[in-house]
Amino acid sequence: MGEIKQFRRALLSAVCTLGFLSAGAANAANWLMLQGTESPGASARANVWGFIQAQYSKDSSSTNAAGQLVPPKLIGPNLNAQSGFNINRARIGVRGTGFPIDSHVNYFLLTEMGNNGITHGGNAFAKLTDASVTLNYIPGARIRTGLFKTPGAEEGLQAIHVFDYINFTEVSNGLLLERVPNKGFTNPNTCFTPPGVPNGCTGNVGPFTEAQLQGGASENQFNAPVSAFRDVGIQVFDAFDVGKDWELSYAGMIGNGNGIEFDNSDGEYDQYLYLSAEKQYGGKGPRAEGLKFFTWSQSGKRLLDNTDDGTDNLKSYKRDRAGLGVKYLKKPFRVTAEYITADGMIWVGPDKPNFYFTNNIAHGNGADAKANGWYLEGGWYIPNSKWELDARFDTMTRLKDRKNQHKFDKWTFGLQYHFNLKTRLTVNYEKRTFKCDSGVAPCTAPPPNTPNFNLEGVGNKVGVQLTAIF
Amino acid sequence: MLNNFRSLCLVMTSLFMVSAAVPALAADDSFADYKYVLHISDMDPSKQTLILNNASNLLQGYPPGAVEIEIVAYGPGLRLMFAENVNAQRIDSLSQSGVKFTACGNTLKAMTKQLGYEPKLNPDANVVPGGILRIGELVKQGYIYIKP
Q1: Is the pLDDT score of B14 beyond 60?
Q2: Domains plus CATH for chain A?
Q3: Do A44 and B43 touch (CB under 8 A)?
Q4: Is A40's CB within 8 Å of B114's CB?
């Protein structure tokens, strides 16, 4: 029995046990409750809210010996420049209790208008990211349905406007922020072939020179938005005050498994399980203090034409994810650690889920491969000041035990200045070490036939981001 | 001798009268130097926090027993006194400190009609026929009226 399967079985038993508890519902600050419920007897009919994140990024990576760049050396989501300003998130939404004297029903609506994987991938000016209704009629079993964040890893589930870094960890970005593959990528009508670049439809795209990027070549060929850690489905969840300031929470969900797109073309459903236990130290809202232990699993299937042979031959691949972690927050300190493992549908390319770098690597190696990773991060809120220091190490091993196994290590050093409770400036410096490390070919092949031909030039990255919440 | 007996009877009678009167005086809190009626009828949840903060601050601002506070809720503001209200624990704590919570019966009837069932109120809330009438009575008795 696989690691993820054992994990899921244990988690399912625990979630079922917790679901039968009949303790009174708690009002603690956890992501399930914060995003899925409203304060009983005290919520607005329509509370308008949102946030803007304006960003400047500069990537100091160098080109390969042929003067070409690959996606990790470019600024996303456009992937055509190494520096630039961006409004990476601009979200506005409304939430509340439509009939305020009845707290049994609440709703949550949010749209994205920034330039990121949600809007750029979907080629949309604005995109709905959340639209859900929660029914709070059954004690111990609230029901939330619609489009919303799936119960899972802390980085994905938490409110992004209070995320302490500019970029996600490599493990969350690579394994959890799902890129939805273009199932029909071999159809020439769905491919983009920039002038003078003869590889738009078959094989991988790029790497491109700066001139080619300026001429319209695109490293990013996805035609659908990233999943944004969300799904469309139905969730049963609740939180229980079990005394001595401890709170237990659970969630079980099924969804289409197609991110924020309203589509279930494969007829399969993803299953999500989540369990957490938190010792509450005080406060409320997204910055509530506590010590939280959490574990989760996600399981689903994806259809993919992985053969790159010009014919439609879709095949179903599993996509399983699981993780466990701990978060401690009691000012002035914060520590978070999480381990994540993945089986199937390992994303390895910006254009097609085949491979990441242009070399003689066999196609299809991500669809049935494994990966894992972890991160450890900490923050120090400098007492009697508005400054905060952050540091994080994250690592991901992709295509584990395959001949083209890759390792992505990243250090992030951060400094934040809180103008007030809702406005802050974040400065991040990322030190990245990416390499193909299987010890055999193609990792050990001579340049340019090794992925390291491109990876050795991946350098450090600086970002400055202003977040304003309203 | 008779004088002594008369004096004793007078003292006993006085003591009895005082002892009988003390509970009544305590119930009315008529020793309080300051009396406030705080009014909430807003839908805005932030007003709920504000009015409870006002009550806490008033309690802290006067010596024990020197202030009497009554919070009267009607209209959408009655949600503050729902049993499920997120501030229920705080209401209970204030109630134990002497703050009175008064719920409007007219609003309760109207909400019962809208919901199809009577909303459960906080056990600390005392229902009166009309919230606005209660405010009028209290103002007439000299209460300082505050609507945050």
Answers
A1: no
A2: 3-469 (2.40.160.10)
A3: yes
A4: no
Q: What is the pLDDT of residues B80-126, one digit of tens each?
A: 999 999 999 999 999 999 999 999 999 999 999 999 999 999 999 99
Determine, for residues A42 and B115 on separate chains, whether the beta-carbon distance falls below 8 Å.
no
Q: Which helix (H) or strand (E) holds A423?
A: strand A423-436
A438-444 long-range Cβ contacts below 8 angstroms, 24+ apart: A438/A402, A438/A403, A438/A404, A438/A405, A440/A403, A441/A403, A442/A359, A442/A360, A442/A361, A442/A403, A442/A404, A443/A403, A443/A404, A443/A405
Inter-chain touch A39–B45, beta carbons under 8 Å: yes
Residues from A contacting B (CB-CB < 8 Å) are 27, 39-45, 100-103
Counting the structural domains of chain B, the total is 1
In a domain, B3, yes or no: no
Asked whether residue B1 is domain-assigned, the answer is no
The interface pTM score, or ipTM, of the predicted complex is 0.77
The answer to whether the CB atoms of B44 and A44 lie below 8 A apart is: yes
Whether B11 is covered by a domain: the verdict is: no
Question: Which residues in B have their CB inside 8 Å of a CB on A?
Answer: 43-45, 48, 76, 79-80, 82, 84-87, 111, 114-115, 119
pLDDT exceeds 90 at position A412: yes
